[in-house]
Amino acid sequence: MTASLVKSDPQLRTLTNQDITLQDVIKSLPKDCFKQNALKAWTGAITSVLMVALGYVAIVNSPWFLLPVAWIFTGTALTGFFVIGHDAGHRSFAKQRWVNDVVGHLFMMPLIYPFHCWRILHNFHHTHTNELDVDNAWRPFDGAEYESLDPFIRTVYEQIRGYFWWVGSIVHWANLHFNWNSFDEKDRGDVKLSMGGAVLFAAIAFPTLIFTTGLWGFIKFWLIPWLVYHFWMSTFTIVHHTAADIPFKPTADWNAAEAQLVGSIHCDYPRWVEFLCHDINVHVPHHVSTAIPSYNLRMAHRSLKETWGDYVYERQFNWALMKEISEQCHLYHPEQAYQSFKEHAAR
Q1: Cα 162 vs. chain centroid, distance in angstroms?
Q2: Among 31, 189, 215, 318, which residue has the least CB neighbours within 10 Å?
């Protein structure tokens, strides 16, 4: 099956053939992409533990002027913790469900992330990627919805859609993951367990850290690395699905293959970041199928490029990319995907 990309006026990325299904794309991938390898999975997990430990050794021993370097390294390594939990949440870390659940909780608790709460909400995002008014990850508001917001909420939206994108995942974390009433009844047992685990970790770790190292120790050893982690969490997430030519579509026009293959973005980061974060930036194959373990994403990406050609969207992480997202990709617009706050105000 051949694939070509149509960029309609004004240059929106879409599928030429709307009959292409997501299963067509999945079936085109080599079967080896889906094979789980326990050695690779546990090697990745142990590597993350060692890198985080190395980061904390650096924080303990660094003079004040090298602390920012140690913080950046440690926070990035902690993002690797999240990616291990991410694989566990998609059941691609291990074949046994209980192993995935244990690993997911252990690696996400230091980040105060309730594992099952995140798992359920994140799987919803995968089911409804770039579906307007449905997707729960960086969904743009349209002009009318934006104008109807409470002034405080509108200001928050403006900031996380602008140059403060890097705190967006903190807002998402705090707003969506700690209210069990927002989850289906059948999931609330799991949700309460995960919330309890995250709260228990904080209740033990935070007072212990403050008692032994003082308030500065809490800021130095946990808060700042955690903020660096959220910088990457926010950055990866918004870059994965946001560009001036990537549209969100209403349910009636939404196409799963288009959303997952064309609407997901591969972004190259410095190799040390990709190493510490287990190639989470290789995101297109992950959206094609969440069953692909992180250590097979590059293999799957090469296959997608060979088979589906121009459908695979690749970017480079740099200031120009973040400037484009922060200055242009603010509000949903049906003809041009996004309009900026300035464009909206002018109209």
Answers
A1: 18
A2: 31
In terms of Cα–Cα distance, which of 87, 108, 127, 126 is closest to 173?
108
DSSP β-bridge partners for residue 338: 332
Contacts of 239 (CB under 8 A, 6+ apart): 265, 267, 315, 317, 321, 322, 325
Residue type, 53: A
DSSP class per residue in 127-194: HTTTBTTT--SSPPEEHHHHHHS-HHHHHHHHHHTTTTGGGHHHHHHHHHSS-GGGS-GGGHHHHHHH
pLDDT tens digit at each of 347 positions of the chain: 444 444 444 478 888 888 899 999 999 999 999 999 999 999 999 999 999 999 999 999 999 999 999 999 999 999 999 999 999 999 999 999 999 999 999 999 999 999 999 999 999 999 999 999 999 888 899 999 999 999 999 999 999 999 999 999 999 999 999 999 999 999 999 999 999 999 999 999 999 999 999 999 999 999 999 999 999 999 999 999 999 998 899 999 999 999 999 999 999 999 999 999 999 999 999 999 999 999 999 999 999 999 998 899 999 999 999 999 999 999 999 888 899 999 999 87
The span from the CA of 11 to the CA of 6, in Å, is 8
Phi, psi of 245 (to 5 degrees): -115, 15
- Model pTM above 0.90: yes
